[in-house]
């Protein structure tokens, strides 16, 4: 038995985002080009002299570069994966140099639909080119070049972030040692695309969307965006967890026969929807859900995922959650079996956690024990 | 532990260097670790116990968390050279199903199990108590074992299922038992194959 040195986990503390500007045009999978762009990112820990301890954390639909730590003077500003990243945490910043990047098309500072289109001097809006998982990875690779990182010790992501981690190992097989693909899928199912389409229609049909150029009209399609978020939220929770949290609890203790909030779940969804519409960009939501829909690394291989994974050289940890029906365990197993049949080293854990898709953001003991055990073995 | 090392050495002797090996019920992955050291196998383990999954990850073993009772759907036919089940068959409900699955995804199967007809076990039963021993370390009320069978039973099952026994080794502790294995051996190891055609 190894001696277990269990140290109290700490926060990475106060962090500040950084910005990198890129002048070289980026060719996109859609055929378009971004002439120049900015990427906003954060780093935690220290890049070692050998530059081999870097770990890239990829964000999902509504995430950002702010993975861990807090912002000075800002309450409740913990990063979205703060429970994972920090000194003594499973992704230990005493060993690793961790990077979070806001993806292209995002709304947290990287070039996106609300940035100025140099050709028109106005916000890109709906003219912002379609960006894909592969494009994001290409942009992240350029940031890695800029930071002097030739090869990542690991690329980590949940959900859409897991797709980026997987894609890294296919686009840049020599630049990734380990990929941690969590609560993800090799491609979306029709049902999953259907949820995204409902969300998009809610935005596209909002009268204040103005064909995606709402910035110029000084309005925001908040109703559509809130509705999109409500649909999403339903799919991120499990039936059980929603039932446990809200059940059929009523605001007024008895039905009052109104379309105002009566059931607590209605109140929760409206609150989440309105909150989200207050800070997220509708065009980013549209673009990002399309990136999810389009992702399919086996598409160019007649649907043969094993063939698609033939280029990969990384080792993998795949994790899913029993109650996740948006990215169900069976979808993760598809990745696992394809990797195994490609002779890749792969481990797979199916975590019994009640919280549905959102489980990947929580600190379930078994989940974090698996991550810690795997990450501890990553050699640098 | 001495018994376990012996089990490992027998299994290692049945495996060629560089083979693809699947270990069903791989525990903390120590057998696969041994096989990757002495035979440089490409090994994968299957487990469904959360703590053992963590132990495998800590041991740097490829482990896949699934419930074997559901079979090995998702594993391609004949992908593995050897599929091993070391001292776990007696804890499986779907005995015939898993044996068929092992020989579907593997060219050969390696199975070891405690022999319930071992003389000390017979003696315990004669004395009116369920056997508890090194290889059957559980009480009747807390045992994970659900199938109680003997070397003779297993031979008969292989015959019935058309499974070819390529080799069989029986042991009492780490001593090879040649005569009367169903009486004198506490554990048996089998190397199994599919019938031709």
UniProtKB/TrEMBL annotation, chain A:
Listed name of the protein: Homoserine O-succinyltransferase
Keyword Aminoacyl-tRNA synthetase annotated: no
Function of the protein: Transfers a succinyl group from succinyl-CoA to L-homoserine, forming succinyl-L-homoserine.
Family the entry assigns: Belongs to the AB hydrolase superfamily. MetX family.
Alphabetical UniProt keywords: Acyltransferase, Amino-acid biosynthesis, Cytoplasm, Methionine biosynthesis, Transferase
Main subcellular location: cytoplasm
Reactions that this protein is recorded to catalyse: L-homoserine + succinyl-CoA = O-succinyl-L-homoserine + CoA
Keyword Iron: no
Pathway involvement of the protein, from the record: Amino-acid biosynthesis; L-methionine biosynthesis via de novo pathway; O-succinyl-L-homoserine from L-homoserine: step 1/1
Protein origin, superkingdom: Bacteria
HAMAP family assigned: MetX_acyltransf
Pfam families in the cross-refs: Abhydrolase_1
Enzyme Commission number: 2.3.1.46
NCBIfam families, alphabetized: homoserO_Ac_trn (TIGR01392), PRK00175.1 (NF001209)
Record-level GO cellular component terms: cytoplasm
Subcellular location, record wording: Cytoplasm
From TrEMBL, chain B:
Stored Gene3D superfamilies: Vaccinia Virus protein VP39
Pfam family, one: MetW
Highest taxon of the lineage: Bacteria
Protein name as catalogued: Methionine biosynthesis protein MetW
Native species: Zoogloea ramigera
